[in-house]
Write a structure and sequence with these properties.
Blueprint (H helix, E strand, L loop, with lengths): L3 H26 L5 E3 L3 E9 L4 E7 L5 E6 L11 H12 L8 E6 L12 E6 L3 E2 H5 L8 H20 L2 E2 L8 E3 L5 E3 L6 E2 L24 H4 L8 H16 L9 H12 L29 H5 L6 H10 L10 H6 L13 H5 L7 H6 L31
Parallel strand pairs: 1-5
Antiparallel strand pairs: 2-3, 3-4, 4-6, 5-6, 7-9, 8-11, 9-10
The structure holds adenosine-5'-triphosphate (ATP) and magnesium ion.
Adenosine-5'-triphosphate (ATP) binds next to strand 2, strand 4 and helix 12.
Amino acid sequence: MASQPQSLSNQLETDQQKVTQNLINYVESFKFPYINDINNYDRMLKIGQGTFGEVFKAKCKKTGKIVALKKILMENEKEGFPITALREIKMLQRLKDPNITELLEICSSKATSYNRGRSTFYLVFTFCEHDLAGLLSNQTVKFQLAEIKGLMKQLFNGLYKIHMSRILHRDMKAANVLISKEGVLKLADFGLARPLFKTVPGQPEACYTNRVVTLWYRPPELLLGERQYGTAIDNWGAGCIMAELWTRSPIMQGETEQRQLTLISQLCGSINPTTWEEVEKLPLYGKIDLPQSLRRRVVERLNSYVKDAAALDLIDNLLALDPRKRLDADKALDHRFFWTDPMPTDLKRLMSTLQHSMFEFTAAHGPHKRAHPQQATVNVPAKVPAVQGHMHDRVF
Ligand SMILES: Nc1ncnc2c1ncn2[C@@H]1O[C@H](COP(=O)(O)OP(=O)(O)OP(=O)(O)O)[C@@H](O)[C@H]1O
Ligand SMILES: [Mg+2]
């Protein structure tokens, strides 16, 4: 009789072990609906390290197709699937277009006791050979005017599709512009994208966070605290990218928000209610130092790089301080830049001269190391050297 409690506790222990084992078996053999096995791919090399995950080039074992795997960082997730990745997936499903990156599927690794029962998730994209930051950092890559027109036309086509789908990209920058080996430009990285809310008459307008867009490509309204912004924020970035096709490095590289506004004022002229109607209503106007008596010098400062008058005019209109005056993607496509000789051309010639892939990440670690990294997205501080004390030292 005395052994009975002992056998009861043994029995309980065995039952508990069985339950634990069943649970492990369940987790290990669990198949998420719509999610495929990452073991279908062989990883080849790392091509990107973003704020939200790593990107690898990989090959499908069955078909041999080359893809890009974007690993979803789960470290900060206490539970569940990260909202940023869910947003990105939802946006990409809505945005099927030749000039927008193509999401093929979502994959996960198996949950095992080795990874404490936590799967790793990956977004699988059609692979593109280059990103624009990588191409621009390589001085041997020379763009002809007609090719720049071809690139910008594709960029505005992609942006038009995004904006017509009532989506804001919110992270326009050269590293998020991909180019396939066929020379097709694809806007990528929808990690910060979000839908535009419909405005209901009589209801207050929707507010969005203004901590978006990499600092160097961030428009003045965001820097001044605007939270009811629209598609014009992406067109400012398009203007910065367009100028960069000639200057080869980002045109305004501020290391703080204050400094970015100073650089913008030095290029686009002083910010005040005369140059930008109702700017005084923005939350940070009057709270942040805005240098006065500076005239607009976009054309003057860029004309030693950009020798085409129509190109200069288009950049000038994309870098309008007042978002209401900034050209949108539709109007940009109608600009005479795209309708005068030399007409836009495809990138076949250029692509045939490139021997290997060029990415910002590999350039930053290889022979084409960029002088000024450009990672200041969201709350991450810009990784740039200390200010040299001169007001023009960090501009193209
Ligand atoms: N489909 C693709 N083909 C080739 N390279 C890609 C592809 N998608 C992304 N990359 C590379 O990986 C980099 C990072 O990808 P992505 O911008 O989507 O990630 P992220 O984590 O949001 O980056 P960040 O926060 O730096 O903007 C890109 O700049 C590009 O160089
Ligand atoms: Mg990116």
